[in-house]
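User: My collaborator sent over this chain with a note saying "see what the structure looks like." That's all I know about it. Can you take a look?
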Amino acid sequence: MSKKRTNYSSAFKTKLVLELLQNEQTLAEIASKHNILPQNLMNWKKTFLANAEIAMEPSKAVKEYKEELIKSQQQNEHLTALVGKVTVEKEWLAKKLKSLGSSKLKKLIDLKPATVHSLSSSLSINHQCQLLGVNRSGLYYKPRVNHAKQAIKSHIAKVFEQIPIYGEKKVHQQLLEDGYKVSLNTVARYRQELGLQAVLAVKQVNTTTPIKAHKKYSYKLRGLNISHANHVWSTDITYIKIAGGMVYMAAIIDWHSKAVLSYKISNTMDAQLVMGVLNEALEKYPHPEIFNTDQGSQYTSEVHTQRLKKLGITISMHPKGISSRLLRADCKGRATDNICIERFWRSAKVERIYLNAYQSINELIADVDDYIEFYNHRRFHQTLDYKKPMDVYQESIKLNQNKRKAS
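Assistant: Without extra context I'll predict from the sequence alone. Here is the result:
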């Protein structure tokens, strides 16, 4: 059982200190006489002498105390203001940090062992996680890389670099052809994540001008079901602006397959241009049953119409003013004016021609040659169930030949 500690009164302590200060007895003698420890007596002496000034000059002591008190209050006010400022800044930073996302917040945590010289020497990893609102259990987690997704996105970006005109449906078809098993919605989502959009340009389409004196032929395609290649060909002329002025392009398209059979570019819009396109197509491919044009003067000219009539080809001409009907046509076997060639012009212009500034006719011809090859052999066509026009044309020719042999 421990001995109970003895408490001495202030009067008793003062009496012994005064006795010690008389210097008549030794420290040991006074301590022994009063049954206390010599060390206690020494401590009392130090305390007595340290406070003797207060007893002699109390007003001075009170003044110094007040000054110390005022100084402490000022220091407390400064610290309070500093704490308030730090609190406001901390709350502001906390709101900003929340917007960074967990992956970026994790990067702010110092995972190295704390050292004397490091800024976070007083912050443990747990404390850092608490301050940033990061779950410690997920601090060392490394997300798994979806290699299949990365491969698909890389291929989508590659397709965009090669064919920037493709929308999500044609990109999806291209991926399927290249061996990727992916849905259309996934392709659309990945393209959105990559920030990719089809690069197109749109300008007004111009048409040819009729001459009243020329004979006009009736429109033969209304209600006609065009079901095979070379059933109907269609032709038209369009304007293209280059650095030196205006040039003209004529083309012939097979209605069933949407394949471009011939095309030419000239600095003049005349019968020579349309006859050159017509003769080239007639020499390269089997003759059509019906040849459809607009009522432009080049197509109603004697030289053009007689060339078709001598070969037994039926001439069809759609009337002037088709622009209001273009948007209503479906071009899926049902003939509506000259919509197929008009849609080809739109595709060629918004996908290639309007995206370039040609300095010469030769530069334009080279680029159009490249686009026609792409259009016929590599471009997916939505109305053909994403097949290529020339593939559909050749397949239809073979099918017709087999039918004739069988009959």
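A starting point for your reply to your collaborator: DSSP finds 17 helices and five strands in the chain.
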